[in-house]
Amino acid sequence: xxxxxxxxxxxxxxxxxxxxxxxxxxxxxxxxxxxxxxxxxxxxxxxxxxxxxxxxxxxxxxxxxxxxxxxxxxxxxxxxxxxxxxxxxxxxxxxxxxxxxxxxxxxxxxxxxxxxxxxxxxxxxxxxxxxxxxxxxxxxxxxxxxxxxxxxxxxxxxxxxxxxxxxxxxxxxxxxxxxxxxxxxxxxxxxxxxxxxxxxxxxxxxxxxxxxxxxxxxxxxxxxxxxxxxxxxxxxxxxxxx
Amino acid sequence: xxxxxxxxxxxxxxxxxxxxxxxxxxxxxxxxxxxxxxxxxxxxxxxxxxxxxxxxxxxxxxxxxxxxxxxxxxxxxxxxxxxxxxxxxxxxxxxxxxxxxxxxxxxxxxxxxxxxxxxxxxxxxxxxxxxxxxxxxxxxxxxxxxxxxxxxxxxxxxxxxxxxxxxxxxxxxxxxxxxxxxxxxxxxxxxxxxxxxxxxxxxxxxxxxxxx
Amino acid sequence: xxxxxxxxxxxxxxxxxxxxxxxxxxxxxxxxxxxxxxxxxxxxxxxxxxxxxxxxxxxxxxxxxxxxxxxxxxxxxxxxxxxxxxxxxxxxxxxxxxxxxxxxxxxxxxxxxxxxxxxxxxxxxxxxxxxxxxxxxxxxxxxxxxxxxxxxxxxxxxxxxxxxxxxxxxxxxxxxxxxxxxxxxxxxxxxxxxxxxxxxxx
Lengths: 242, 212, 202
Hints:
Chain B contains 8 helices and no strands. With 212 residues, chain B is mainly alpha-helical. Chain B has a single domain, classed as Orthogonal Bundle (MetI-like fold), CATH 1.10.3720.10.
């Protein structure tokens, strides 16, 4: 059974159809990179997976849990799905450590000391062991995003969602965030990454998905995807970004 | 000169009453503001409309009308109120409506990404509000709350018109006894209000600058 | 009576506000200091006390006092003009300062004089920025006309007050007066929002 199975997913905001009949399957340990022009519905897919946005039709099953089943509680879903945002969305009134321990303490019910241990280990993993007591405002963008990754990992998620995790960063510091993401991929974390980093997709992805205007145009392993794109729209997009 | 000096102790007592009114009204207004403002920030539209109506009503009606209604009007409906209680209640309801706007405004000013990030961690609605949104919103509420206190102090002078012996009423009583002290007495009262309120509004402006 | 006081009050407060704001950003330090002192004093003292001062204390000034006995309605209107005018000074000053510095630089780079920079570039933008706050202040002035009744000028509220004294059925009457005020205030609010929309950019 795949980790994520989306079939026939539809979503509209008012008159605007953002997702039209999306079918997507991601296997355990795979890295799925979603690329495409802005406004194509990439970010909405991620938000549908953890129910930040309710879908209008179709089904999403993640690790055996149905997203559309009202009996499945938000919290059961979200502790299995970690999310990293384009704008980091760290909580500015908390230190890096407090950001990372909030979920484990309040959602998983960990004791403060256990949550702290977990936070220390994860901050070390993203290379920020010495920044545990810093506030987000004292950290660079790249450091903030690495704290945000640690915060999501602290829940022990089955899947990690990355919503343009490097798009808000200066080009010279995207590398430090991509390095952490590559490390996670090497450890066989199941990841779904909306990204503009073609180099990252080529190197790390198990599958590359190209979206345009609310539909999945083409989906293939990176070799085939970048080497021999099938569809005209894919070719024209790749010719602009590569 | 003599009757001016004689008036001083009563003015000081009046100022004390002014403070009592203002502090009591502020405490009620903050509590009211938090309840109403938080409710409004979370309420679905259907529930928000009646709440908005309540807030707009108490914001739109002149404070003096409200005060007279509570003091003269309620007894007609069989509810006895003391002068001070009527004054405090009117100030509290009026300022509470303003406070609820402050609270709601601060809560909705927190970027959506904060709520999304907290929801993505699995926190529930109330946990998100309590742990993530309100702690950030408090900083934004502080300067307008301080300014609100200055407004309450200023508005509490209306209590004199329902015979509460606040600073203004103390002055009126002295002037009634000896009309010749009107100039020094009213000047003293003006300056007293200024001395109290100016530092408060200054503090509000400083906070505003520092926190944004 | 309410409408007359409100009308002259609004006009007066706008005039005071404009002059005060121009002085607050003037290069002349004494003008700035005078405007600041005026604004802070009248903003931070209750309008009711200001009205009492004008009506009852001013005539006691030695020498010129007896010439300063103002009709109650004038004292009341003047008090409101001073208080709401001081608030307008702050609103307009904040509006002027909210216009991006680049606008002034661009106007200066075109060779416009200081006055022309204000007239053609800064003030039109500042007014749009200040409009919501100015609108609130007009509404607040309208509500404050109730204070006028306390020194014996009959306004909408004062009339109700007198009637009560005679017949002592006040609950309904106060409610009626309150509702009439509320309707006026709501109308004013709607008017200002419409004005904001019209003046909005784009």
